[in-house]
Specification:
GO terms for molecular function: hydrolase activity. By secondary structure, the protein is an alpha/beta fold. The protein has helices at about 10-15, 40-55, 85-95, 130-135, 165-170, 175-180, and strands at about 1-5, 20-25, 65-75, 75-80, 100-110, 115-125, 160. The longest helix has 18 residues, at about 40-55. The structure holds thymidine-5'-triphosphate.
Length: about 190
């Protein structure tokens, strides 16, 4: 039995695919990027922070997983859009180009927190103003890093993917299982 420190329904569904028993715990932390922090350092720090916060929330702590996903383009990190203008800016950056999605997964077992970082390159087709407005009105972008969900209506924008599809959705299945095995949580 393990714990998943996440409020994301996608992460719950993905972890279910690994076929292990888990409970969901809170892993809330401040998600702001620190000055001078690289995207890699940022996403790993958040995943570790969520795992550690989730571990600390339990009275009889289980090995606890935390994860974080960011979208990166031109050295900029795109988080969750704050409003339509922010979303529009993100879609204009992503339109007709390749970007990188980074997902870090961390496992906290008390004193030690180990992590794995997965990078995936995703290419988008050219997006029209109409595509952007219609996608915003679907309600899907609001809670997603980079303002899109590859598993939903934005799947049609993707012309190429190199890396882990599951990492883009929020939890890389292969790498998460490897991490659990390396740390002796899974046989
Ligand atoms: C790029 C992309 C992101 N996402 C989601 C995955 C994450 O849930 C979210 C990125 O935000 P995160 O801050 O990584 O996660 P979260 O706040 O949703 O959940 P928690 O911290 O409680 O675990 O964006 C998709 O569902 N599909 C996609 O294609």
């Amino acid at each position: 039995m393990i714990a998943l420190a996440s409020a994301s329904p996608r992460r719950r569904e993905l972890l279910t695919q690994l076929g292990l028993s888990f409970v969901v715990v809170k892993g809330d932390i401040d998600e702001s990027q620190l000055p001078g922090e690289t995207p890699e350092q940022y996403v790993v720090r958040l995943a570790k922070g969520k795992a550690q916060a989730g571990y600390a929330h339990q009275s009889a702590p289980l090995p606890t997983l935390g994860a974080d996903t960011i979208v990166e383009i031109d050295g900029q990190v795109l988080g969750k859009p704050t409003d339509f203008a922010d979303f529009q800016r993100m879609m204009q950056l992503l339109s007709g180009r390749q970007h990188r999605v980074r997902t870090a997964v961390a496992l906290c077992c008390g004193e030690r927190t180990e992590s794995v970082l997965v990078s995936t390159e995703v290419s988008f087709t050219l997006l029209s103003e109409h595509d952007i407005l219609q996608y915003w009105q679907s309600g899907e972008p609001a809670d997603k890093a980079g303002g899109y969900g590859i598993q939903g209506k934005a799947g049609r924008f993707v012309t190429k993917l190199s890396g882990s599809y599951f990492a883009v959705v929020g939890l890389p299945l292969f790498e998460t299982e490897q991490l659990l095995k390396q740390q002796g949580v899974l046989a």
